[in-house]
Amino acid sequence: MARNVLLIRYGEVHLKGQNRSYFMRLLKEDIEQALSDMGAVVTTGQGRFYAFGYPEEREDEAVARIAKVFGLHSVSRAREVGKDFDAIFAAAKGLMEKELQKRGGKCTFKVFARRADKTFPMDSMTIARELGHLLLKALPGLKVDVNGPDVPLSVEVREHAYVYTGEEMGAGGMPAGSNGKAALLLSGGIDSPVAGYMVMKRGVDLHCVHFHSFPYTSERARDKVVALAKILAGYGGSVVMHIVHFTDVQMALYEKCPDNQTTILMRRAMMAIAERIAKASGCQALVTGEAIGQVASQTMESLVVTDDAVNMPVFRPCIGMDKSEIMDYARRIGTYETSILPYEDCCTIFTPRHPVTKPKLEDIKRSESLLENYEELLQGAIDRTETFIVTP
């Protein structure tokens, strides 16, 4: 009996050795989570996952969700039939009839066949040759094009036979949660969500740390950052959000310290607070969206001084990217339109006119020492932090 099935391919996981079953289990759980409200069943086969039982009218949505699951290479909408050549032909004929209807009654095609089950009596070349021959006889509007076909028609003989006419690319990377946890300093800008996505893609669970300076930053700015975290959660299942109330720290820096140093001083304070939250949350690294030379706080000298504030590793996935590259990436992952909403964050509201671009560590530490209650300010911000789970 034929039925609609989503045929799901995985990527790097197939390279894993003795730990492969662990990664496969995570991938299956992530696919099930992505389809959790659709009543779908997810099974594991020979080199593939299969999803079925979802509402037919929600197939596009199911494919879109699966395509966001890290660790997956691609997904195809397939017809599952018995391992019988007549059944394979019937399914292929039905799919090609639909393609002809969509294309005005004419199109080119090529048959791709893969016989994973070696007990099937026809080898891959024979399947492709015979199927192509019968389709040409049955559907006059078809022509073969082996170099650039309009429709690539594929057949895979595995647990059952699967017939489909294309594939949609997945997110790639590694399964969510397979490579530890990290804390992302998430602003409302373009860069940090991209950095978070790139780390999540490698299997890292995210804790997002956002610095909120009410009343100088609005509740709409806060909502914007939560919306960005929600988009990221669409790829990893969920993220933990930490909203740090940063006003007291920021105002003390601006009142007591040299104006041209305030951006670097603020960044050091953020890093110090984020590190403490990260350690308490079991994270193993910090992540930022910084790129060398993009702004004054991201010169080589500034980054060295900033990193001195913490002992934890700091990952910067965007470090060598141009702004235009980061913007293109943001558009691709769906964060760009939210990032450009005109609600300022605490990094922009008190930007000095002439920020120092080549800070000296001894000068910055001397300025920090002007705040006798510096540690109390940092701890106070941590104590007032709001923490909650953000889901897609």
Give the SSE map.
Blueprint: E1 3-10, H1 20-34, E2 41-44, E3 49-52, H2 59-67, E4 72-81, H3 85-102, E5 107-115, H4 124-138, E6 142-144, E7 151-157, E8 161-164, E9 168-169, E10 181-185, H5 191-200, E11 205-212, H6 219-236, E12 239-245, H7 247-256, H8 262-280, E13 286-287, H9 300-307, E14 314-315, H10 323-333, H11 336-339, H12 361-368, H13 374-383, E15 386-390
Helix pairs in contact: 3-4, 5-6, 5-10, 7-8, 8-9, 8-13
Explain what this protein looks like in three dimensions:
- The protein has 392 residues and is of the alpha/beta class.
- It has two domains: 3-169, VC0802-like (2-Layer Sandwich), CATH 3.30.2130.30; 181-390, Rossmann fold.
- It has 13 helices and 15 strands.
- The strands form two sheets. Strands 1, 2, 3, 4, 5, 6, 7, 8 and 9 form a nine-stranded mixed beta sheet that branches.
- Strand 7 and strand 8 (161-164) form a beta hairpin.
- The longest helix is centred in the C-terminal third of the chain and has 19 residues, at 262-280.
- The two termini are 35 Å apart.
Summarize the structure.
The chain contains 13 helices and 15 strands.
